[in-house]
Amino acid sequence: MTGPLLKVENLTKHYTVGAGFLRKSVPVVRAVEDVSFSVEAGETLCVVGESGCGKSTIARLLMRIVEPTSGRVMIDGTDIAGLKKEPLRAWRRRMQMVFQDPYSSLNPRLTAEQIITEPVENFERLRRKQRQALAADLLRKVGMSPEMMHRLPSELSGGQRQRLGIARALSLQPSLIIADEAVSALDVSVQAQILNLLLDLQQQMNIAFVFISHDLSVVHHIGHRVAVMYLGRIVELAPCEALFANPVHPYTEALLAAAPVPDPTRVRLEVPLEGEVPSPIDPPHGCAFHPRCPLAIERCREVLPALVPMADGRVVACHVRAPAPATDFSGQPPAPAMLARSCATSTVSS
Fold it and tell me: Where are the beta strands (DSSP E) in 51-191?
């Protein structure tokens, strides 16, 4: 089938708070608001932003852990956001998730073999030799010894537990893996091992990743394209190298300026960014970033900016840096699509 593996259109999630029969109006938390993007097979889309911007909510919406308020999530053209029960269950084999905490996401009472084979046994019966062969094969793929299949999670290190979580995600041979802060709880040296493992698995199995992270150095290493979120919306989506070389949105500039630089002789760009992230219950009118933006103009306070395609293949929502043309961004990858591929090649080989 032609087209992207994953296509998200106008995805929205609102949570009501303090609902009660005495309240005339119910406050609403706008966790994710009108988010659109797509991911090709074998591509990694990274989602970045401050805490509370909606990154993890997007992961849960893609996996149907929570129900969307509106919008579509399409895998190979099928809208899984509207599926129920058995049809949805069949599509769950196509997508799996690697969680942030490699300990709490694993059942402490199950051995590594049971953890790996449990997803498969939800769909088909396996004999003992089949379970052992599957566990051994997947443990080898993630760089662990097959002898570890009899160990409990408490008997493994943090890096080994995350490798086990990856092996579990691979057991159903998914086309798409959602990685929610998959390396943030690990030491730096172990982070590098896990990231390189994910890159190797992607090349071998053509898996697409939606990689959620707050660590921009991790994103730079693994990403093909990067979506920058602020208060539930995407404000910039760009090929990885283009975004790091030349950020356009003022919020993207501020994120990159705040990231630590390992070279003490390098002069860092200082971007003034004051104030706190507004409440998602009562977001500002117009551009949500305008109360903190040093470039804000009157139009920013009144009109919500649309995502506008730019010449280098990115889309940006900013009245100052990317004035809106007659047409808005449709949610498709920016043309030409090979821009993302060339970025991916340079990132993986570095």
Answer: 70-75, 78-79, 95-98, 176-180
Report the alpha-carbon distance of residue 247 to residue 234 in Å, rounded. 14
How many residues are present in the chain? 350
- Count Cβ atoms below 10 Å from residue 193 Cβ, excluding itself: 16
DSSP state of 94: G
- How many whole angstroms separate alpha carbon 12 and alpha carbon 29? 11
d(CA 136, CA 130): 10
Q: What is each CA distance from 209 to 44, 121, 188, in whole angstroms?
A: 5, 24, 21
Write the pLDDT tens digit of every residue in 220-244: 999 999 999 999 999 999 999 999 9
Residue 237's closest CA among 325, 345, 318? 318
Q: What pTM does this model have? A: 0.86
Distances 67 to 14, 48, 81, 231, 309 between C-alpha atoms, Å: 10, 22, 8, 19, 30
Residue 222, both tokens: 């693994």
Pairing of strands 308-309, 315-316: antiparallel
Residue with tokens 């970045």: 48
